[in-house]
Amino acid sequence: MIDIHSHILPAVDDGCKDIDQSLALIKEEIRQGITDIVLTPHYRAEYLLRRAKIEKRFASLTQAVQDSGITVNLYLGQEIFVFDGMISAIHSGKLFTINGSKYVLVEFATKEEHDITDTVYTLVGAGFVPIIAHIERYSYADMEMAKEIKELGGLIQINASSLCRRFGAYKKKATAFIKEGFVDFVASDVHFKRRNCMLQAYNVVVKKFGRETADKLFTENAEKILNG
Amino acid sequence: MSLFRRKKDLGLGKERIIVSEGSSRFGSHGYTRLRDNIIYLNSDGNRKVIQVESAMEKEGKTSVTANLAVSLGLTDKKVVVVDLDFRRPRLHRVFKLAKEKGIAEYMRDSLSREELIKHTQYKNVDLITRGAEIYNPALILVSDKFKDLIFSLKAEYDFILLDCAPVLQVSDYIHISKVSDGALFLVAYGRTTRAQVADAVKELRKNDISIIGTLFTMYDKKKDARYGYGYGNDYGKYYDSAYGDTPAAIEETNESDGATEEQADK
Fold first, then answer.
1. CATH class assigned to A2-226
2. How far, in Å, CA of B184 to CA of B168, rounded?
3. Contact A115/B at CB under 8 A
4. In chain B, what residues touch A118 (CB-CB under 8 Å)?
């Protein structure tokens, strides 16, 4: 499986505070069956780190992984909280797209309504492909919006944890979005201390929607964007 | 009252231009009729600035505004469409242009009038977008700069179509009415309730806003045949017609439940 959304990079956000925590999370990912991880630290008001610093962390993590003999493929990305000027920041190289590709992971507010489709339209117009992070978490996101996002050329990611719940709004929404064919990726959004349930989520999807769908959401679609 | 046949959509959010030269596409008949009515109403030249309104959101204001503009453009009328739905601007998408560099920047004096007016790929149709986010819509709409802009556009264009925010959601329509010659009021068939329509019309009238015409969007023939309408998401079944042969719908529109036909001068 491929995980396109994780907070495993050390000391850059609220994900992992040091390399030990990062390695612990990576080991858990591997245990769950994940072979490729995209590290997507937050970029938002509390975490406005410079590109160089993030690259430095990435280099040291990669080294640590190698030294530990862990076999995993790591890629760099970012989870960008939408803001004015985001596009020029991406163009100017201030922000990270997924593995340097045209795919950008974008996050929005959960309660206050953001004009998501507007952001999608603008990003697509600028030559990027936005991936909407954990859409099920946005109270104002509904089928209509998901459909419009897809029509405009955007992609949609939901969190594994939403599928692992027994009930609740996130579970309901996540399942409904998958059912309508609006979801492209399921990812962990893992932080230290949060339970990683990618494997469990995979099984939930297999059971409900079949193995073919599950493989698309957990592996194949991600493969496509990593290969450019 | 014109009726719009809208090709069956899979859902909302896909506003597009369906009018074209010599078009017999489904729904474009309605626009031809609407366009002719608008031209007729403006024969004295005092109905050129039109605010396109509806009670609620997603009733088709953007689609109608854009398609009407293109339709007018095809008759060699010079038209500018202005996106005044500041909270949910959509016009630029229909014309496949960027919304950046619009009213927001112009009002801040960081954009010239020339840069503000965008040319679309449609004959005689120009576009003014919102630009960056606007946090104080009312302040902009009541400002002299904004009023002067609209006034100056009148000298340059035959028609100025204003895509506005829903009447029942924000009160922008009140300020906009100070620069417009009247409102074109839209009702999404089978979706907007009578009470909503009545409230919206009441608001417009309360503010002395002349309703120069009303029309239904998202007409569903299938729904029409059954008695009563639902509040669901079942939109626009394609209905091919020459005008006139929709008696049931016309009967419906003659009921005065707040949606009325008022094409008089006020």
1. alpha beta
2. 15
3. yes
4. 89, 99
Q: For position B88, what pLDDT does the model report?
A: 92
Q: Do B11 and A125 count as a contact with CB atoms less than 8 A apart?
A: no
Mean pLDDT of all residues in B73-77: 93
**Tokens encoding B156:** 């340059």
How far does the CA of residue A144 sit from the closest CA of chain B (Å)? 7
Give the model confidence (pLDDT) of A78-137 as tens digits: 999 999 889 999 999 999 999 999 999 999 999 999 999 999 999 999 999 999 999 999
Q: How far, rounded to the nearest angstrom, does the alpha carbon of residue B1 sit from its chain's CA centroid?
A: 14
What single letter denotes the amino acid at residue B23?
A: S
Residue B266 lies in a domain: no
Residue B261 lies in a domain: no
Q: Are A118 and B12 a contacting pair at CB < 8 A?
A: no
Asked whether the beta carbons of residue A148 and residue B12 sit closer than 8 angstroms, the reply is: yes
Question: Is residue B244 predicted with pLDDT exceeding 50?
Answer: no
Establish if B264 belongs to a structural domain: no
Residues in chain B: 266
Q: How confident is the model over A191-219, as pLDDT tens digits?
A: 998 899 999 999 999 999 999 999 999 99
* Rounded CA separation B239/B6 (Å): 7
